[in-house]
Design brief:
By secondary structure, this protein is α/β, with parallel strands linked by helices. It contains 12 helices and 6 strands. The longest helix has 24 residues. The chain has a domain of 191 residues: Undecaprenyl pyrophosphate synthetase (3-Layer(aba) Sandwich), CATH 3.40.1180.10. Strand 3, helix 9 and strand 4 form a beta-alpha-beta unit.
């Protein structure tokens, strides 16, 4: 259903671009596009459609709602480049969008949200100046979380997972403070993957298993999927029900490789800073319309 909508959307866009080559179409179209009344009508119509979509998602019932949503927040740089902005502005817009998404997730009473913020590959592939910008944004975001009324009113526990020892000291300090400020909460768990890689996570779990076995604390016969799961960075999390990736790429990019074995995957062309509440509802409705299969 989602692919059909995307295909239809591309055909409509192509037709619109062709029609706009003609002045008889482009002149009135330009007038309408700059009309306050037109934008007011479009905004109201979009809000009505979004609210109807939200009502359908909620009406499906709690058993049809994903309990754990994981998100690959892709497209900050492309969002900026498309608007002739520098990448710093794109990352800042992405940070603000994450705050919005957390609010929408809380409104739906979904108890687990996990986001992919920085991969281990990013630490070596990104320029030092861009990494410094990202680190500063993470620090300010974590500091805001520590005092955010939304976080405390909804009893949101915050945790950061990954090879955090690779991160700069000032960022590790901000992580520790945010985790300490929310450690007593358990109603909602917000997990940020920083300096994270799915393969690295599995390697670290296997090392722990090997050490436990060598110490005589773990029998060979006891090594099973549960033994590995309990030694992952996300051991206190249920596996994701739904993984959403923005910005058009259709791959998982070393994200939660062990945990998403049976997750439903949803890909959208929208860049992360442009991700709307309606986009979230569409992803969840698509998930609700699927018949989940385990091992087939």
């Amino acid at each position: 259903m989602s692919r059909a909508r995307k295909s239809a959307g591309r055909r409509i866009d192509a037709l619109a671009h062709w029609l706009l080559r003609f002045r008889i179409i482009s002149v009135p179209a330009g007038w309408i596009a700059n009309s306050t009344l037109a934008w007011s009508i479009i905004s109201r119509t979009d809000r009505i459609r979004r609210n109807r979509l939200r009502d359908r998602v909620k009406a499906a019932g709690p058993e049809m709602m994903p309990r754990h949503i994981s998100m690959i927040m892709d497209g900050n740089r492309r969002f900026a480049w498309n608007r002739s902005m520098d990448t710093e502005a794109g990352h800042a817009a992405g940070k603000q969008r994450l705050k919005d998404v957390m609010r929408w997730i809380l409104d739906l009473e979904i108890p687990y949200l996990t986001v992919y913020a920085l991969s281990t590959e990013n630490l070596t592939s990104r320029e030092g100046e861009e990494l410094d910008t990202l680190f500063d944004l993470y620090v300010s975001g974590l500091e805001e979380i520590s005092t955010d009324p939304m976080v405390h009113e909804n009893r949101v526990k915050v945790q950061v997972v990954g090879r955090t020892e690779l991160l700069p000291e000032h960022l590790r300090k901000a992580i520790a403070e945010a985790e300490a400020a929310t450690s007593q909460y358990s109603d909602f768990l917000f997990t940020v993957c920083l300096a994270y890689g799915g393969r690295e996570e599995i390697v670290d779990a296997v090392k722990t298993i090997a050490a436990d076995h060598a110490a005589g604390d773990l029998d060979l016969e006891s090594i099973d999927p549960a033994a590995i799961s309990s030694r992952l960075y996300t051991a206190d999390l249920p596996d994701p029900d739904l993984v959403i990736r923005t910005s058009g790429e259709e791959r998982v990019s070393n994200f939660l490789l062990w945990q998403i074995a049976y997750s439903e995957l949803y890909f959208t062309d929208v860049h992360w800073p442009s991700f709307r509440r309606r986009d979230l509802y569409e992803a969840i409705e698509d998930y609700q319309l699927r018949r989940r299969r385990y091992g087939s």
